[in-house]
Every structure is written in structure tokens, then in C-alpha cells.
Amino acid sequence: IRHCILLTALAFAGCSVARAQEMNETARSFDLGYHFTKGDQFEIKQHSQQDSYITVDGVESRTTNGQDGVLQLTVDTVTGNQATLSASFREIMLQSSNRDQHISVNTTTDDQSTYNRLFKAMTGKTFTMVLQQNGTVKSVSGLNAIFDQMIAAVPEVKADERATLKHFLESQFGPEAIKFGLSFVLPSYPARSVQVGHVKIRKLAGVD
């Protein structure tokens, strides 16, 4: 699996999202933010695809990488302006192909290939996210132990290759990768009240 598979291009499904609070009819201003309640459950459906082309000696070669999956979230506690959530992947589907190689992962199947067993070992495993009321993912924790369990699920991977495999998992599914991916779908809201007619410009780091 190539390193350009990213947790990006996410889309909400069945989620109770942000709402306007404390509407002031006179000043026509209001506060924006996520309103969480303990026990709330929702899902993030994710989809991404990246195609790259290279031409050598007049021969064009295409590399395709894609990812689909479902991330389930449950609100455990709400403290002040942030919520702690339990998160787990319900399903993961990956595609990586070029002229000489094709790798496919679909954790909803019983395929016993190395990569399928690797990522199937990630599904249903719970990690923790802290999400602030303004939509910022403050922290993601608990993934390191999951990565160890994933690698243990594929004992045929040689000992000297396991460190490389773990580094790949950390770079593509680790805390920073998940926070970066969620930044595409979770709207971020200002800390101060806004008024009708205000304009907000949002820029994503790392995106041209």
C-alpha cells in the first residue's frame, strides 16, 4: 500500500451537528458550535481517491489509490467546551494499483490476504478523541496499542519489516493523520458571536 493513501474527503452521515444557540433577535447575533450530549452516536463516512500519471518514453502509467470506510463515534463525557468520544472504524476499504501491482482491502469480507487481515484487525477497536465545541479535534489517543494488535494479526510479516509497517500505519492512520482528515469535514466555528452578513474564509493547512 502506497503512502499517498490518506484519510481525507470525509462526509457526515446520521450525525447531530452544529446548531445556532442563544439567538438574539434584537442584535441579530448568535453563537455557533457543536452541541453534544452524553450517549450521542454518529458516523463519519469517508471516501477518497487519488490518481497520478507519469509518462516515460511516451508510455503513460497511472497509479490509483482510494479509501472508503465508516468511523463510528460515541460521546462519553462532556466537560466545558469539549467532549470526549469513543471512536472505532466499522469498515475499511482500500485500493492501490499501478501497472505492476494491485492491492485490495475490504474488511467486510473474509478474505485472508495479509493486508485484509491487517486492516480487519483495526475494525471494532476503540480509541479516544477529544473534540472541542468549535469543531477542533484536540487530541486522538489509544491508536498505538491498536497498531500493535494489527501487526500481531499478520505473523508472516518478518521481524525486520514490522517497524516499517508500524511507521506506515502511524503516518496514515495515526493521531495527526486522523486530525488532518477530520479537518476537511468538521466545520470550525469562531469563539465569538457572529452576526447576519458576516463572512468567514476557511483555509486548510496542507491544501493548495
Describe the structure.
With 208 residues, this protein is of the alpha+beta class. 19% of the residues lie in helices and 41% in strands. It is built from four helices and ten strands; from the N terminus they run βββββββαββαααβ. It has helices at 114-120, 143-152, 159-173, 175-182, and strands spanning 10-13, 19-24, 29-33, 41-56, 59-79, 82-97, 102-106, 127-132, 137-141, 194-195. The strands form two sheets. Strands 1, 4, 5, 6, 7, 8 and 9 form a seven-stranded antiparallel sheet that branches. A hairpin with a 4-residue loop joins strand 8 (127-132) and strand 9. The longest helix is centred in the last third of the chain and has 15 residues, at 159-173. It is globular.
Task: Report a brief summary of the structure.
With 208 residues, this protein is an alpha+beta fold.
Label this structure with key terms.
3-stranded antiparallel sheet, 4 helices, alpha+beta, 208 residues
Topology:
Elements: E1 10-13, E2 19-24, E3 29-33, E4 41-56, E5 59-79, E6 82-97, E7 102-106, H1 114-120, E8 127-132, E9 137-141, H2 143-152, H3 159-173, H4 175-182, E10 194-195
Antiparallel strand pairs: 1-4, 2-3, 3-10, 4-5, 5-6, 6-7, 6-8, 8-9
What is the radius of gyration computed over CA atoms, rounded to a whole number of angstroms?
Answer: 20 Å
Total helices: the number is 4
Order of helices and strands: EEEEEEEHEEHHHE
What is the CA-CA span between the terminal residues? 25 Å
Determine the mean pLDDT: 80
**How big a fraction of the residues is strand?**
35-45%
Oligomer: single chain
Write down how many β-strands occur, each being a DSSP E stretch of 2 or more residues: 10
Shape call: globular
